[in-house]
């Protein structure tokens, strides 16, 4: 027993002399509560929804009033007026809006005559959670169209909300695939790039590198390149497995190519970030701590699991500077929506800019001397 | 400041030769916060020399090496290696030198051949030449049959030999070795010594090595610098350093007891300049050994002291070290006996 206590004492001494591990053991659970707690199952707010009003009648105005009441009340969505139905449809397809409501030309006249009237709803069903949320909110908003208090609603079944889902049916497990692929890219960086640097430092191998004529650019770019190759390859394998498991095959070859480009860009970005994070780290135990921390704060706020619109403002603000947000969004556009290159290239460029920026910073901050 | 120009030396019995400094330092200092690891050290190592830096752990040897091989910046002073300023021309310095660091730094996840090839490419050795050199070097260090084995499976001695070969892949002018035989068994140490001697002759290498093994310095080095607390305490060939130690020879003896009475007796013998107690042994510094030896033996017999062993020896580098530094080498060295197996 005494010997066991001696072993325990040795471990405790080492633990208390590693401030990073101590901070991680306390900080992680708290961070977990904040990030995970606000990333899942929060109420959806401010989803961008377009409205195309082709009717000037009183019931069309009433529909808009009811929708504005939702905007002012539980704020499930924001309304944006569009003139053209085709344009609204195009913008939903390319991710600018989550849905578009179309009030057709004879909407008020039909209701006034007691005839059935329909409202059009174009839904981006690639995000099942958001589209269901919008659908439910709209249904409740148009359920009752009393023009004035005391005036009876039309004696017809009311308003028929005709929803058009513009993408193929997406199961929740399929919805997770883009995020899982981005997570694979992140996990790949844990076994390459900056991680190798920490291990080289730990084993003393870096000293012999530094004694050669290699410049710091040679060293950093070399490690990033090897990391990019292994990480991208691992991620592509994960992608293929995800396809096989979820039956979410890429819509077309162009989307596949853009998604592959996003995988490479994300790998580069994550490797650059890890290189910066590990710039001065010597203890291999820090690999797990730093990696776990970065994974938590980048993955969950990215919208990979639950829509960003459900986050509180502070987490939404963070998700705007989270490179994984753009990586996940781009991957969703490619894999779930089969988006055109023009719709994805912006996200790819953002992630690439992040990759170049972190790589340059890594080169600048890398210590070529011991 | 600029490095010294080559100087002409006239050695008695030889033709005039040009002395080219391969390493030159002027008052270099390295300070870590409030600790001065190297203190205004000035040194010059000539071409084709085997120069040894001798000092105990923490004396500043590795710090000096790391400043010369560009791994650590100088706090003050100037240093040139192979004619290049170590601060301003660090890449040129690294191209000109081969280094075998104290820690084993070969990549354990690569084979011996892969380790050699990667480093050959770092130094941009052309492919055909690289292939030939790798083959030659691996054979020379006795690792040919293990060339395709992962280095992780190598013993310490094998890794050290591989790292010496790796340090020579680009044919450097200067080979720097930091404690090259630390942790090796006696047989491996001998192998390393022999390799260094052979390579030095064949490649006209200049060698700078640090060691705290006195026999290693005596065996390998043409000149030795004794360093202590970051300062160069003495400089010269092992023979020159030994000649500066007062007293001609040493008598080591073991009596039945090492007490004050016996020490006083030994100190009173004519010709004995100094008596030292080394654990249970005595060491006498004597001006003239034959008469002192006789006096010790006769005196012990007359007084009834049990004389168990007695040996006469010349002044060694260890004596010189104690003389210049004022204390013995670190425990690790004091425990080391050439020929005896070590455990690390």
Briefly characterize the structure.
Chain A is of the alpha/beta class and 370 residues long. Chain A has helices spanning 2-16, 19-39, 58-72, 85-93, 107-112, 128-143, 172-189, 194-203, 205-210, 216-246, 253-277, 285-299, 313-321, 323-335, 341-365, and strands at 47-53, 77-82, 99-103, 117-123, 159-165.
Number of strands of chain B: 16
Termini Cα gap of chain B: 45 Å
Radius of gyration of chain B: 23 Å
Helix/strand order of chain A:
HHEHEHEHEHEHHHHHHHHH
The low-confidence runs of chain A, each spanning 5 or more residues with pLDDT under 50, are none
Strand content of chain A: 5-15%
Chain pair with largest interface:
A-B, 14 and 24 residues
Oligomer: heterodimer
Overall description:
The complex is a heterodimer of chains A (370) and B (344). Chain A has 370 residues and is α/β, with parallel strands linked by helices. Chain A has 15 helices and five strands. Chain A has helices at 2-16, 19-39, 58-72, 85-93, 107-112, 128-143, 172-189, 194-203, 205-210, 216-246, 253-277, 285-299, 313-321, 323-335, 341-365; strands at 47-53, 77-82, 99-103, 117-123, 159-165. Chain A has a five-stranded mixed sheet with strand order 2-1-3-4-5, sandwiched between helices. With 344 residues, chain B is α/β, with parallel strands linked by helices. Chain B is 35% helix and 28% strand. The interface between A and B is medium-sized, with 14 and 24 residues.
Topology of this structure?
The complex is a heterodimer of chains A (370) and B (344).
Chain A: H1 2-16, H2 19-39, E1 47-53, H3 58-72, E2 77-82, H4 85-93, E3 99-103, H5 107-112, E4 117-123, H6 128-143, E5 159-165, H7 172-189, H8 194-203, H9 205-210, H10 216-246, H11 253-277, H12 285-299, H13 313-321, H14 323-335, H15 341-365
Parallel strand pairs in A: 1-2, 1-3, 4-5
Antiparallel strand pairs in A: 3-4
Helix pairs in contact in A: 2-12, 3-6, 7-10, 7-11, 7-14, 10-11, 10-15, 11-14, 11-15, 14-15
Chain B: E1 7-9, E2 17-19, E3 21-32, E4 35-46, E5 50-54, H1 61-68, E6 76-81, E7 84-85, H2 90-96, E8 97-100, H3 112-122, H4 127-140, H5 156-167, E9 174-178, H6 186-203, E10 206-211, H7 214-220, E11 223-228, E12 231-236, H8 238-243, E13 249-255, H9 260-267, E14 272-278, E15 281-286, H10 289-303, E16 307-314, H11 317-325, H12 331-335
Parallel strand pairs in B: 5-10, 5-11, 8-9, 9-10
Antiparallel strand pairs in B: 1-2, 3-4, 3-6, 6-7, 11-12, 13-15, 13-16, 14-15
């Amino acid at each position: 027993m005494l010997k066991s206590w001696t072993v325990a004492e040795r471990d405790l001494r080492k633990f208390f002399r590693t401030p990073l591990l101590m901070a991680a053991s306390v900080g992680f659970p708290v961070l977990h509560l904040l990030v995970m707690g606000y990333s899942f199952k929060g109420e959806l707010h401010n989803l961008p929804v377009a409205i195309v009003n082709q009717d000037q009648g009183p019931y069309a105005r009433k529909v808009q009033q009811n929708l504005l009441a939702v905007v002012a009340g539980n704020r499930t969505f924001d309304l944006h007026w569009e003139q053209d139905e085709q344009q609204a449809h195009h913008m939903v397809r390319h991710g600018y809006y989550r849905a578009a409501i179309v009030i057709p030309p004879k909407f008020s006249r039909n209701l006034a005559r007691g005839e059935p009237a329909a409202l059009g709803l174009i839904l981006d069903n690639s995000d099942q959670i958001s589209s269901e949320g919008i659908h439910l909110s709209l249904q409740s908003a148009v359920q009752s169209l009393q023009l004035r208090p005391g005036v009876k609603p039309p004696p017809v079944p009311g308003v028929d909300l005709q929803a058009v889902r513009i993408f193929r049916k997406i199961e929740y497990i399929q919805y997770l695939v883009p995020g899982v692929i981005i997570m694979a890219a992140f996990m790949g960086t844990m076994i390459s790039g900056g991680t190798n640097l920490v291990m080289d430092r730990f084993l003393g191998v870096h000293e012999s590198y530094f004694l050669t004529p290699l410049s710091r650019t040679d060293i950093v770019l070399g490690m990033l390149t090897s990391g990019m190759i292994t990480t991208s390859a691992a991620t592509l394998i994960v992608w293929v497995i995800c396809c096989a498991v979820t039956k979410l095959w890429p819509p077309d070859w162009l989307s596949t190519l853009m998604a592959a480009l996003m995988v490479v860009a994300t790998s580069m970005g994550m490797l650059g970030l890890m290189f910066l994070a590990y710039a001065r780290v010597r203890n291999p135990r820090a690999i797990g701590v730093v990696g776990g921390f970065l994974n938590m704060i980048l993955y969950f706020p990215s919208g990979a699991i639950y829509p960003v619109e459900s986050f509180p403002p502070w987490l939404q603000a963070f998700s705007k500077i989270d490179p994984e947000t753009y990586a996940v969004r781009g991957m969703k556009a490619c894999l779930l929506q089969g988006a055109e290159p023009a719709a994805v290239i912006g996200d790819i460029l953002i992630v690439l800019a992040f990759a170049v920026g972190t790589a340059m910073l890594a080169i600048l901050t890398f210590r070529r001397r011991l | 400041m600029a490095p010294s120009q080559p100087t002409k030396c006239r050695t008695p019995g030889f033709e005039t030769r040009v002395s080219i400094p391969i390493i030159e330092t002027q008052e270099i200092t390295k300070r870590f916060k409030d600790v001065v690891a190297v203190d205004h050290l000035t040194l010059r190592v000539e071409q084709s020399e085997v120069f040894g830096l001798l000092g105990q752990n923490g004396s500043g040897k590795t710090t000096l090496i790391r400043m010369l091989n560009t791994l650590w910046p100088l706090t003050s002073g100037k240093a040139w290696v192979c004619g290049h300023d170590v601060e301003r021309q660090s890449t040129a310095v690294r191209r000109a030198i081969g280094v075998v660091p104290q820690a084993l730094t070969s990549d354990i996840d690569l084979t011996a051949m892969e380790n050699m090839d990667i480093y050959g490419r770092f130094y941009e050795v052309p492919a055909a030449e690289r292939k030939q050199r790798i083959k030659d070097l691996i054979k020379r260090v006795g690792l040919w049959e293990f060339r395709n084995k992962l280095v992780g499976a190598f013993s310490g001695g094998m890794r050290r030999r591989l790292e010496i070969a790796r340090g020579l892949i680009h044919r450097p002018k200067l080979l720097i070795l930091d404690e090259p035989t630390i942790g090796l068994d006696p047989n491996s140490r001998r192998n390393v010594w022999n390799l260094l001697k052979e390579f030095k002759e064949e490649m006209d290498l200049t060698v700078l090595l640090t060691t705290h093994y006195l026999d290693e310095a005596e065996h390998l080095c043409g000149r030795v610098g004794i360093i202590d607390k970051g300062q160069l305490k003495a400089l010269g060939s092992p023979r020159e350093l030994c000649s500066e130690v007062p007293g001609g020879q040493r008598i080591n003896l073991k009596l039945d007891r090492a007490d004050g009475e016996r020490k006083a007796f030994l100190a009173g013998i004519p010709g004995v300049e100094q008596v030292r107690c080394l654990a249970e042994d005595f060491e006498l510094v004597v001006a003239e050994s034959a008469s002192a030896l006789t006096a010790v033996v006769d005196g012990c017999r007359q007084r009834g002291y049990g004389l168990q062993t007695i040996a006469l020896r010349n002044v060694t580098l260890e004596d010189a070290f104690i003389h210049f530094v004022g204390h013995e080498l670190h425990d690790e060295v004091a425990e080391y006996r050439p020929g005896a197996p070590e455990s690390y």
